[in-house]
Amino acid sequence: MYDEKQIRQIAAAVLEVFKRCQKAPDLVSLGIPSAHIYCSQKTVEQLFGSHAQLTRAADLNSFYYEEGVAISGPKGSTHGYIFGPLLDDDQDPIIELSRSESEALGIDAPVRESLDDYQSGACRIVGPLGAVACAKGAIIPRRSLNLPDYAAEQLQLKDKDTVSVNTQGVDGTIFENVIVNVTNDGRHELLLTKDEAQAAGLKHGDDVKIMKK
Fold first, then answer.
1. 173 φ, ψ to 5°?
2. Does residue 30 contact residue 202 with C-beta atoms inside 8 Å?
3. Helix %, strand %, coil % for the chain, to 5?
4. Topology of domain 23-32+143-211, per CATH?
5. DSSP 79-135
6. Is 202 helix (H, G, I), strand (E, B) or coil?
7. Exposure class string for 141-157: b at 16+ Cβ within 10 A, else e
8. 206 in Cβ contact with 165 (< 8 Å)
């Protein structure tokens, strides 16, 4: 049985999906993730102890956990969230930062598609009960657009297509070379780093418009 808090969370998530469905398919909301990591259960246990289980965040529209870690580089450290779903145990952690975060930490992080650790930067992840030294894995995620399959079909877009996105308004900004990720979990959002969003005067939840090339 669900308790009252869980019922409220589920109702809020359903309402949010309903609202998204009422929008034109070419209008999407903006997401601005903070520094975060993707990791396996094996890494979770290295950081939080044997048999540790993470707690899903209350925001059911997002897939991250309440437990945090420190992401450290030669120049300092910053707080990071753990994003889901968890990776397989044979996969190394992926650390995703904005350009300003990577520079502040002294981490040489290249721009890569999310979860692509090819020739990526080194850092250290620190949890309450342990730490993991990563010889690679730190990246600046390329701007991306998560589209549910029904919206992608309406827009005649497919996975890994690239589009431009217009922030609209008097001082509108056009972001080019945005990679499309077609999902089956209802996500309908543009993901930018905080640096990109701040440069365009955007905040989390703002609506932007897809411009097909």
1. -120, 140
2. yes
3. 20, 40, 40
4. Barwin-like endoglucanases (2.40.40)
5. EEEEEEEEEPTTSPPEEE--HHHHHHHT--PPEESTT--TT-EEEEEE-SS-EEEEE
6. coil
7. bbbbbbbbeebbeebeb
8. no
DSSP for 36-93? EEEEEHHHHHHHH-TT----B-S-TTS-EEEEEEEEEETTEEEEEEEEEEEEPTTSPP
- pLDDT category at 186 given cuts 50, 70, 90 is confident
Average pLDDT score, the chain:
88
The residues that bridge with 126 in the sheet, in sequence order, are: 70, 131
The answer to whether 121 and 166 are in contact (CB under 8 A) is: no
For strand 189-191 and strand 174-183, is the pairing parallel, antiparallel, or unpaired?
A: unpaired
Measure the CA–CA gap between 187 and 52, rounded to whole angstroms.
Answer: 28
| Average pLDDT value for residue range 15-34 | 73
pLDDT digits (tens, 9 = 90+) for 74-123: 999 999 999 998 999 999 999 999 999 999 999 999 999 999 999 999 99
User: Which sequence spans correspond to the domains of the chain?
Assistant: 23-32+143-211, 36-141
How far apart are the C-alpha atoms of 115 and 129, rounded to whole Å?
25
Which residue type occupies 39?
Answer: C
Residue 21 has pLDDT above 70, yes or no: no
Residue 138 dihedral angles phi and psi, to the nearest 5°:
-85, 125
